[in-house]
């Protein structure tokens, strides 16, 4: 790598150009701030007809609305995505609780999107509004009262009023800023498989709760879907080592009949971790997305929480700039932390409660969850509330 030890001044430097970091860069760039984005690898180009990314996310209506304001949703729609109108939860295949978009007078409850396409859609909007440093990574961070300086592996230095760490759950910037975290690795991991299904385009995402962990189906564009299988980590690793044909057989045996005669095309596995940063800022470094919190993906909320962080943080920064205030002030960062940390913690704890109640075979808890699903299936009000929560509006 050539060495460039020059120093450039920006308003904001962002480390990590995944879905959350890219959305922050775009929002601030569109508002006229001088933005640098440091990302270690270029997102893959979209090729029509290519296999879908194995990493997919359920994107709620609140995130969709913000991404539409940014102009990225329109670009994503031209690539590939799949709306779903129904969300089903059940323990036994015959006792399904269904949440409908129509119940809350919406056309859909959310979309399943491929992570790399959403990232690509955001990057396509950068134009000259965001200065990219990619591939690049950070070797040092220095801070003083007025600014923060990042040194890149090329030797180049980026000096800015605020550094935003959006570099994922294993955030290097969080460590460089001296922010500790707490959390744990769940005993379960999850296998994710891309499958061909025998059914025409599906509009339902479903999740079966079993004592060894949930089994979920997420529809993708056309006759494809994403299957998520939560199990003990050792079992998941064994499943991941199987050939597509062997895994297909295991899947059909273990999943409820709703899955149909699927065929596995590709698969991978992911460890599951919970991580909560002790604080969301230190000096002029602030955390957003998975760098601040990593949540059990059970209810598909991780990146939606990240977009909620990103939206609030960018609004506060844009407002401060409008009033000629310091865009990296303690007051601004405190306001961000005060609003987002409790909201993220609440969702993490709710997911852990879910994980405890639905992920085991202790008799009293079995009764609780059967009762919960039975009440939910009969109560229109409860179903409406759950559906509203799932779309991110309540
Ligand atoms: C199996 C699974 C299923 C999930 N399903 C859902 C779902 O349905 N809905 C949902 O909302 N969420 C879901 N999530 C969570 C979601 O994937 C994450 O919340 C989301 O990816 C976080 O985005 P991010 O941009 O904060 O971080 P990341 O996606 O981790 O992006 C970080 C970026 O930073 C870059 N980077 C890292 N370190 C450096 C460095 N030192 N220098 C430069 N660049 C760096 C990386 O290359 C990457 O581009 C799921 C997670 C898993 C594991």
Task: Please explain how this structure is put together.
The protein is of the alpha+beta class and 394 residues long. It has one domain (1-83, 112-185, 271-394): FAD/NAD(P)-binding domain (3-Layer(bba) Sandwich). The chain is 36% helix and 29% strand. The chain is built from eleven helices and 19 strands. It has helices at 19-30, 61-69, 72-79, 115-123, 172-176, 233-240, 244-254, 302-322, 330-358, 363-378, 380-391; strands spanning 7-15, 35-38, 56-60, 82-84, 86-90, 97-100, 110-114, 130-133, 138-143, 148-152, 157-165, 181-196, 204-208, 215-219, 224-232, 263-277, 281-282, 285-287, 293-294. The strands form three sheets. Strands 1, 2, 8, 9, 10, 11, 17 and 18 form an eight-stranded mixed sheet that branches. Strands 6-5-13-14-15-12-16-19 form an eight-stranded mixed sheet, sandwiched between helices. Strands 3-7-4 form a three-stranded antiparallel sheet. Helix 3 (72-79) crosses helix 4 (115-123) and helix 8 (302-322) runs antiparallel to helix 9. The radius of gyration is 22 Å and the shape is globular. The N and C termini lie far apart (49 Å). 46% of the residues are buried. Flavin-adenine dinucleotide (FAD) is lined by residues 15-21, 38-41, 57-58, 115, 137-138, 166-168, 172, 190, 192, 270, 289-290, 297, 300-304, 306.
Give a brief rundown of this model.
The protein is of the alpha+beta class. It has helices at about 20-30, 60-70, 70-80, 115-125, 170-175, 235-240, 245-255, 300-320, 330-360, 365-380, 380-390, and strands spanning about 5-15, 35-40, 55-60, 80-85, 85-90, 95-100, 110-115, 130-135, 140-145, 150, 155-165, 180-195, 205-210, 215-220, 225-230, 265-275, 280, 285, 295. Strands 1, 2, 8, 9, 10, 11, 17 and 18 form an eight-stranded mixed β-sheet that branches. It has an eight-stranded mixed β-sheet with strand order 6-5-13-14-15-12-16-19, with helices on both faces. Strands 3-7-4 form a three-stranded antiparallel β-sheet.
């Amino acid at each position: 790598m050539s060495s460039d030890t020059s120093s450039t001044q920006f308003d904001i430097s962002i480390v990590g150009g995944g879905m959350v970091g890219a959305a922050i860069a775009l929002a601030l760039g569109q508002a006229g701030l001088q933005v640098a984005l440091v990302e270690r690898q270029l997102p893959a180009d979209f090729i029509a007809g290519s296999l879908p990314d194995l990493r997919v996310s359920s994107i709620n209506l609140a995130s969709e609305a913000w991404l539409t304001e940014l102009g990225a949703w329109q670009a994503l729609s031209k690539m590939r995505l799949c709306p779903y109108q129904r969300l089903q939860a059940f323990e036994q295949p015959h006792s399904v609780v269904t949440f409908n978009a129509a119940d809350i007078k919406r056309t859909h409850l959310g979309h399943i999107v491929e992570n790399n396409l959403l990232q690509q859609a955001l990057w396509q909007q950068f134009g000259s509004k965001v200065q990219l440093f990619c591939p690049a990574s950070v070797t040092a961070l220095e801070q003083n009262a007025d600014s923060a300086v990042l040194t890149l592996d090329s030797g180049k230095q980026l000096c800015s009023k605020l550094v935003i760490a959006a570099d994922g759950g294993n955030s290097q910037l969080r460590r460089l800023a001296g922010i500790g975290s707490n959390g744990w690795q769940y005993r379960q991991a999850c296998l994710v498989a891309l499958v061909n299904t025998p059914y025409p385009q599906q509009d339902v995402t479903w999740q079966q709760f079993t004592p060894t962990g949930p089994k979920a189906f997420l529809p993708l564009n056309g006759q494809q879907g994403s299957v998520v299988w939560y199990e003990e980590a050792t079992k998941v690793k064994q499943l991941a080592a199987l050939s597509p044909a062997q895994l297909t057989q295991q899947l059909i045996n273990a999943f409820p009949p709703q899955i149909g005669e699927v065929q596995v095309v590709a698969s991978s596995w992911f460890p599951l971790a919970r991580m909560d940063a002790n604080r969301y800022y230190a000096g002029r470094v602030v955390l957003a997305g998975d760098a601040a919190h990593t949540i059990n993906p059970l209810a598909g909320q991780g990146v939606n929480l990240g977009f909620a962080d990103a939206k609030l943080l960018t609004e506060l920064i844009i407002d401060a700039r409008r009033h000629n205030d310091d865009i990296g002030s303690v007051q601004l960062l405190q306001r961000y932390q005060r609003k987002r940390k409790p909201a993220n913690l609440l969702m993490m704890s709710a997911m852990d409660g879910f994980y405890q109640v639905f992920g085991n075979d202790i008799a009293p808890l079995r009764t609780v969850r059967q009762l919960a699903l039975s009440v939910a299936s009969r109560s229109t009000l409860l179903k409406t509330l759950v559906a509203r929560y799932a779309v991110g509006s309540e």
